[in-house]
């Protein structure tokens, strides 16, 4: 990532040095995952769509600890693997919108809330800014050597203070997460001028 672009990492100290944590990032470009993976202060295990595990990418993604997920169904194997990462005190990376979009956290899925509520792990919001620009000739990748900002926010507890794991607690956690991620994105834009 540092050879092809000029990432500027802000707030990396917000990522706890040890213990389970979930990095929740916005997703507007193909390189957001690799950029976050390459700039995180700790190794990250992302839930990656099964379609990416093809050809030489398959053994590579497995070797760096990425988790294959079938987005068309409830993939119990992927869920178990992701919870295992957190149980072992690792870092789970999630794009809570589920797919690339505007990168504004407007269409949050409940997966992030499920992992946060089930594991009790804190959530660290991450904003990746500058990877997607409208009107670009080749929209799949940012121009080489362009600056991309990766802004880590303060960790927060998303789960129910009483430790409930009900559907209502999950829905409330999703609302709390959306509010915190949206606020972090706005603050990251102010801080970086993007």
Features:
alpha/beta; 19% strand; 194 residues
Q: Can you put this structure into words, describing what you see?
A:
- With 194 residues, this protein is of the alpha/beta class.
- The chain has helices at 32-39, 57-63, 76-87, 111-119, 167-192, and strands spanning 6-10, 21-25, 44-49, 67-69, 91-94, 123-129, 147-152.
- Helix 2 (57-63) links the parallel strand 3 and strand 4.
- The protein is globular and about 45 Å long.
- The two termini are 20 Å apart.
- The model has no long low-confidence stretch (mean pLDDT 86).
Chain-wise SSE layout:
Blueprint: E1 6-10, E2 21-25, H1 32-39, E3 44-49, H2 57-63, E4 67-69, H3 76-87, E5 91-94, H4 111-119, E6 123-129, E7 147-152, H5 167-192
First-residue to last-residue Cα separation: 20 Å
* Count of all domains: 1
Rg, rounded, reads: 16 Å
Strand content: 15-25%
- Classify the helix fraction into a percent range: 25-40%
Average the pLDDT over all residues and give the rounded result: 86
- Classification by helices and strands: alpha/beta
Tell me the strand order in the biggest sheet: 1-7-6-2-5-3-4
The total strand number stands at: 7
Principal-axis shape: globular
- List segments where confidence is low: pLDDT < 50 over at least 5 consecutive residues: none
Give a brief outline of the structure.
This protein is of the alpha/beta class and 194 residues long. The chain is 32% helix and 19% strand. Strands 1-7-6-2-5-3-4 form a 7-stranded mixed β-sheet, sandwiched between helices.
